C-alpha cells in the first residue's frame, strides 16, 4: 500500500560540485505520487545534472534523495526503480520492436510467452499496431521509434519515469502529437513523470507543475497558471513569455495612470509591476481602466487571430500590447493608442522577493 499524501520522491539539500564549480546549490523538491512535473530552465541551469543524479548516472556531492522511505542516492542505478527516456532513444537498431520492448523483461528472466504478451499489451498502450512486434527498428519512423522507446521504458514498470528532452529531435507536428500522447499516457498509467525540457510550451501543455531552474537553484515550483500569473521574479516572468515591467516606487510608476482606488491599493508599495500583453485592452476616448497607458504605435504585427502592438509611452518606455484582431485599432504605425487593464491582471513582484531570488 502506498500513502498518497506522502511524496514519492523527496530531494533534500542536494548539492553537486564539479571540482570548484557548483552545478546544484542545495536544492529541495518533493514530487507527489502520479504527478507530471516538468523541469525547465535555460541551458546550463542544471536540469540534466539533477536528472543524472536522480537516476544514478552520477553521484551527488551533498544531500539526499528519498523514494518513499528508501534513501536511493546510495543505491546503484540498475537497482533503482526508476527509468530514463532519452532524446537519443538508445534502442537496438538491428533488433525488432518486440525484442526492444521485451529487453527489460528478459533481464528480469520473465518467460518468453509472458514477455511477448506484455510487449503486445504495451504496443496497444502506445497505439502501435500489434504486427509491429516483428518489425525492425530501422524500418520505423521517428515517431514510431519514440513510441517503442516509451513502451520499453514502461516494460521496466518503473516507479518514476524520467524524460530528458525526448521530443526535441522531432519535427514540430510530430512533437505536438506526441506531447498530447505523453499526457494521455501519463493519465492512463498513473505513473510519476519527471520531464526535462527547454520548451516552456511543452511543459505547459503536459505537466501538473513546472519547476523553473536558474543557475543550479529552483526559482519557482508551481502549476503553470500560477507561475504565469504570479511569477516570483523578473527572471520567471520573462521566462514564461512576453511581459511589460514597470518600476514601482512607493506606489508611483512613470508612465502609469491610475484611478484613485488603484493608487490607494498600491500606496507605499515598491517592486516590479508585471503586466502581460494580452491582459491589456484598447480603451475608447474618455474611458480609463484601473491602470491606463497612453502612447504611440511604433510597430504592429498580425499574429493569426491577434494583433500585437509595440507602443512608445511618453516616458520613452516601450510596451507590448496584444488584442484580438477585431479589437485592433485603425491608423497603424504613428497612431495614438490608449490601453488599460484591471489591477487584478497586474502582478507586483515585491522588491525584497526579487532581490533575494
Ligand atoms: N561533468 C561535468 N564537469 C564539469 N562541469 C559540468 C559537468 N556536467 C555539467 N557541468 C556544468 O554544470 C552546469 C549544468 O549543466 P547541465 O547539463 O545540468 O545543464 P542543463 O540545464 O541540463 O543544460 P542544457 O539545457 O543545455 O542541457 C553547466 O554549467 C555545465 O557546464
Automatic annotation (TrEMBL):
GO cellular component: ATP-binding cassette (ABC) transporter complex
Alphabetized Gene3D superfamilies for the sequence: 2.40.50.100, P-loop containing nucleotide triphosphate hydrolases
Pfam families: ABC_tran, TOBE_2
Alphabetical list of InterPro entries matching this protein: AAA+_ATPase, ABC_SmlMolc_Importer, ABC_transporter-like_ATP-bd, ABC_transporter-like_CS, Mo/tungstate-bd_C_term_dom, P-loop_NTPase, Transp-assoc_OB_typ2
GO biological process: quaternary ammonium group transport
Top-level taxon of origin: Bacteria
Protein name as annotated: Spermidine/putrescine transport system ATP-binding protein
Organism: Tropicimonas sediminicola
Amino acid at each position: 500500500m502506498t500513502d498518497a499524501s506522502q511524496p514519492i520522491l523527496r530531494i533534500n539539500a542536494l548539492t553537486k560540485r564539479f571540482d570548484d564549480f557548483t552545478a546544484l546549490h542545495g536544492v529541495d523538491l518533493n514530487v507527489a505520487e502520479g504527478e507530471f512535473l516538468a523541469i525547465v530552465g535555460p541551458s546550463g541551469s542544471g536540469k540534466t545534472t539533477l536528472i543524472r543524479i536522480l537516476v544514478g548516472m552520477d553521484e551527488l556531492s551533498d544531500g539526499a534523495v528519498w523514494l518513499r522511505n528508501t534513501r536511493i542516492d546510495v543505491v546503484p542505478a540498475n537497482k533503482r526503480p526508476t527509468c530514463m527516456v532519452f532524446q537519443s532513444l538508445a534502442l537496438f537498431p538491428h533488433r525488432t520492436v518486440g525484442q526492444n520492448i521485451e529487453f527489460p523483461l528478459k533481464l528480469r528472466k520473465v518467460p518468453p510467452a509472458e514477455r511477448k504478451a506484455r510487449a503486445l499489451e504495451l504496443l496497444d498502450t502506445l497505439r502501435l499496431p500489434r504486427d509491429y512486434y516483428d518489425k525492425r527498428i530501422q524500418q520505423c519512423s521517428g515517431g514510431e521509434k519514440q513510441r517503442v522507446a516509451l513502451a520499453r521504458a514502461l516494460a521496466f514498470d518503473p516507479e518514476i519515469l524520467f524524460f530528458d528532452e525526448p521530443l526535441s529531435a522531432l519535427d514540430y507536428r510530430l512533437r505536438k502529437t506526441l506531447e498530447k500522447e505523453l499526457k494521455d499516457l501519463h493519465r492512463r498509467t498513473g505513473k510519476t513523470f519527471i520531464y526535462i525540457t527547454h520548451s516552456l510550451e511543452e511543459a505547459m501543455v503536459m505537466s501538473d507543475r513546472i519547476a523553473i531552474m536558474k543557475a543550479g537553484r529552483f526559482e519557482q515550483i508551481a502549476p503553470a497558471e500560477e507561475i504565469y500569473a504570479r511569477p516570483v521574479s523578473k527572471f520567471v516572468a520573462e521566462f514564461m513569455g512576453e511581459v511589460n515591467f514597470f518600476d514601482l516606487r512607493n506606489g508611483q510608476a512613470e508612465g502609469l495612470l491610475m484611478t484613485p482606488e488603484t493608487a490607494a491599493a498600491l500606496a507605499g508599495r515598491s517592486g516590479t509591476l508585471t503586466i502581460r500583453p494580452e491582459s491589456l485592452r484598447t480603451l475608447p476616448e474618455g474611458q480609463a481602466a484601473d491602470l491606463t497607458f497612453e502612447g504611440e504605435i511604433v510597430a504592429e504585427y498580425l499574429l493569426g487571430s491577434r494583433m500585437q502592438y509595440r507602443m512608445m509611452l511618453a516616458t520613452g518606455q516601450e510596451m507590448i500590447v496584444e488584442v484580438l484582431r477585431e479589437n485592433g485599432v485603425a491608423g497603424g504605425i504613428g497612431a495614438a493608442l490608449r490601453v488599460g487593464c484591471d489591477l487584478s491582471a497586474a502582478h507586483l513582484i515585491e522588491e525584497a522577493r526579487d532581490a533575494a531570488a
